[in-house]
């Protein structure tokens, strides 16, 4: 791990001493998929630029949850529930959601809330738990492991809840951002129409979005007025944005909904390559390797320079116990997208399965340097270290993984084991010491 990577991790663990009084656990799952995150980045980029933010500095990721919600807990990541993505019909609607959350960043709402908090435990728990990751999966235990988050639902909602004044300010800023980006702002009203009437329901029946983003008739009318007065109405959607929005929804639906549902709707998808990709996922989930490979190969033939289709093929092969061919296909994906951390992670995982432990170690170390918060990489990296005889580094990587999950007791066990095996004063030793110190403080305050 580079020094630049070690510093934020150490800072996170210094704050982790606040995690002592464990509140009721809550399972949170991030859906990490290179293709879908690229698609979300393509949809978000013009909105973020319109808001004065850098698309390379603000990431959009998914939370696996059927409810409708979107939120931020810091200034670098926008979290969107998978249920909301599947509910929205147009890229303009998704861009409106992103513009609204980006407005909370640019207006300083989260920074102000963090500064005023008397107890940072809730924010720390959110940051640590949401740093962990799983993959868009077929339901296997490795790829769909839940993340234990020591925060009550009420505490989480309290932290993320915006006031009506903040919501009104975010509405104004979001419409301005969409207009600056040359986008049709009417998607903002369409999104709010989805939630209209929710405030009349009892709290247990409301979507989380309404609980954290209060909506009133007056606010809705004000938003409608903002949009009506905006010059961007009727702006044509960018074809690239339309494509990536459709592709993200199709792949997400193919993984989360029944394969039979996906296969019945292939003809409704807007392009042949998207339909073939969705078919490949559905056939793979039905354990039909031959048909899955035929479909994904058809998609690759249509888009031969697309790294994410090869990433999916590698995933299909690896989960079908075809490790050797998976290494080859992931290698092709890496050549097309050499800096993508998740493609690197997939290649390293395939190399591990193929018994190529030295190569896997080098690949996974590179993946960690590019995305140090991916728990799957830390898990696989620990295996690679163990397979190559470096038990000290295996324990250190395992300690990091447990720390990012908020499991400080388990993290402390592995960190102390690493301290007895690693060269004193080395960078890995210092990282293990950070974890051990945080775990010790947590134990004292129990």
Automatic annotation (TrEMBL):
GO terms for biological process: proteolysis involved in protein catabolic process. Its cofactor is Zn(2+). Keywords: Hydrolase, Metal-binding, Metalloprotease, Protease, Signal, Zinc. Residues 1-27 form the signal peptide. One of its GO terms (cellular component) is membrane. CDD domains: M48C_Oma1-like. Residues 40-225 form the Peptidase M48 domain. One of its GO terms (molecular function) is metal ion binding. InterPro entries: Mito/Outer_Membr_Metalloprot, Peptidase_M48, TPR-like_helical_dom_sf. This is Peptidase, M48 family protein. It comes from Salipiger bermudensis (strain DSM 26914 / JCM 13377 / KCTC 12554 / HTCC2601) (Pelagibaca bermudensis). The lineage of its organism: Bacteria, Pseudomonadati, Pseudomonadota, Alphaproteobacteria, Rhodobacterales.
């Amino acid at each position: 791990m580079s020094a630049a990577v070690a510093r934020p991790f150490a800072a996170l663990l210094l704050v982790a001493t606040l995690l002592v009084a464990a509140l009721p656990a809550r399972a949170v799952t991030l859906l990490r998929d290179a293709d879908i995150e690229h698609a979300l980045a393509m949809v978000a980029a013009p909105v973020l630029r319109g808001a004065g933010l850098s698309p390379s500095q603000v990431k959009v990721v998914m939370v696996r949850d059927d409810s409708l919600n979107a939120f931020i807990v810091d200034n670098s990541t926008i979290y969107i529930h998978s249920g909301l993505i599947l509910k929205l019909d147009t890229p303009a609607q998704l861009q409106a959601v992103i513009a609204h959350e980006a407005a909370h960043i640019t207006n300083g709402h989260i920074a102000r809330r963090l500064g005023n908090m008397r107890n940072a435990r809730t924010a720390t728990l959110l940051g640590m738990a949401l740093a962990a990751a799983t993959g868009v999966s077929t339901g296997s235990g490795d790829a769909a492991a839940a993340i234990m988050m020591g925060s009550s639902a009420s505490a989480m909602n309290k932290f993320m809840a915006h006031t009506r004044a903040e919501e009104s300010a975010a509405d104004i800023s979001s419409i301005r951002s969409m207009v600056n980006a040359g986008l049709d702002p009417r998607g903002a009203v369409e999104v709010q129409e989805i939630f209209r009437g929710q405030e009349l329901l009892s709290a247990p029946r409301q979507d989380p979005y309404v609980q954290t983003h209060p909506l009133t008739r007056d606010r809705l009318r004000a938003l409608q007025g903002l949009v009506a007065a905006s010059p961007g109405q009727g702006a044509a959607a960018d074809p690239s944005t339309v494509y990536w929005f459709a592709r993200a929804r199709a792949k997400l639906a193919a993984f989360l909904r029944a394969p039979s549902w996906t296969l019945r709707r292939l003809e409704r998808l807007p392009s042949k390559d998207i339909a073939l990709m969705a078919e490949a996922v559905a056939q793979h989930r039905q354990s039909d390797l031959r048909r899955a490979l035929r479909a994904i190969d058809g998609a690759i033939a249509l888009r031969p320079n697309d790294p994410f289709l090869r990433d999916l093929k590698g995933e299909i092969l690896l989960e079908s116990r075809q490790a050797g061919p998976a290494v080859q296909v992931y290698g092709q994906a890496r050549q097309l997208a050499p800096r993508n951390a998740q493609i690197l992670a997939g290649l390293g995982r395939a190399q591990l399965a193929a018994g190529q432990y030295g190569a896997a170690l080098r690949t996974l170390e590179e993946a960690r340097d590019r995305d140090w918060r991916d728990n799957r990489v830390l898990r696989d990296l620990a295996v690679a270290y163990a397979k190559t005889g470096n038990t000290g580094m295996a324990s250190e990587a395992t300690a990091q993984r447990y720390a990012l999950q908020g499991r400080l007791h388990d993290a402390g066990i592995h960190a102390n084991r690493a301290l007895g095996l690693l060269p004193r004063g080395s960078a890995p030793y210092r990282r293990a010491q950070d974890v051990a110190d945080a775990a010790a403080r947590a134990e004292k305050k129990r």
